[in-house]
Amino acid sequence: MPARRPGSARRSLTAIAGIIATLLTMTVSLSSAASADDRRPAPHPEDHWAGSQIIKHEGGARGGTGEAPSLLASVEGVDVSSHQGNVAWSTLWNSGVRFAYVKATEGTGYKNPYFAQQYNGSYNVGMIRGSYHFALPNVSSGAAQANYFVDNGGGWSRDGKTLPGALDIEYNPYGSTCYGKSQTAMVSWLKDFVNTYRARTGRDPVIYTSTSWWKTCTGNNASFGSINPLWIPRYGSSVGELPAGWAFHTIWQYTSTGPTVGDHNLFNGAYDRLQALAYG
């Protein structure tokens, strides 16, 4: 058996130590990448629509019979996303639906691939329509997401058929309920979004949120109620408690299992008031 050269064992140990150091570095890098991925838009934004996380976190029936509660003055509407694909708008119109909200964007990296069919199709059949943005406050600033929204379908025009854009802010589908933000930081993010949207379009955006989430993640902040119209989800016989600052709701998402496609909503007022909201 040949004699081992002096220092060969030392070189072997050095090589092994180098391999271990490389593996540790790769582990740290992968861990950092995973943390970064947690802040990116998740791989299935088509599964997130207005109310999808409300149902998951707050429970309650997904609409019961799907029939609209009886109100003296109300207008029937729907909201849709890529989850519905191509929508038969004439069928909805014939069922009495007169307005629609369409998901346009999520975070700063997702655009609804069915947006044109849904947004233009609802308009062409005669509906008053608007678009909404699914917020991811941990991904980018409120201003960045408002700009992304406006640039990708969230604009507004005074044509009497376009509603102001809506901000869908609800439970985080990808992680912590409040997106890792304190109540103060969340309020700041929201103000950043609504102020930027107003600067870009001249309109105050509608805010879609549940009372429970709003209390948890903003501390039930009351500073938006006198400015931003409220779109509230509650799948029951009444709209229930409103978040602080809002004396009334503008739109009520009352079911997600209506007799026709999409979530169903009621506008809190007569048709001419819906037109007034569109005109601004």
TrEMBL record:
InterPro entries linked to this entry: GH, Glyco_hydro_25, Glyco_hydro_25_AS, Glyco_hydro_fam25_subgr
EC main group: hydrolase
Entry keyword annotation includes Signal: yes
Signal peptide interval: 1-36
CDD domains: GH25_CH-type (cd06412)
Cited Pfam families: Glyco_hydro_25 (PF01183)
Annotated transmembrane regions: none
Keywords: Glycosidase, Hydrolase, Signal
Keyword Hydrolase appears in the UniProt entry: yes
Catalytic activity: Hydrolysis of (1->4)-beta-linkages between N-acetylmuramic acid and N-acetyl-D-glucosamine residues in a peptidoglycan and between N-acetyl-D-glucosamine residues in chitodextrins
Enzyme Commission code(s) on record: 3.2.1.17
Family classification: Belongs to the glycosyl hydrolase 25 family.
PANTHER family according to UniProt: LYSOZYME (PTHR34135:SF2)
Protein name in UniProt: Lysozyme
